[in-house]
Amino acid sequence: MPRLLLASIHDVSPRFEGEVDRLLEMLRPSVGERIAMLVVPNHWGDAPIVPGSAFATRLRAWSASGLEIFLHGFFHRDEARHRGRDRFRATIMTAGEGEFLGLSRTEAARRIAAGRRLLEDITGREIAGFVAPAWLYGAGTLEALADCVMPMAEDHWRVWSPATDAKLARGPVITWASRTTLRLASSLAAAATLGRSPQKVLRIAVHPPDSRHPAVVRSIKQTFRTGMRGRQAARYADLGVRI
Question: Structure pTM?
Answer without folding.
Answer: 0.92
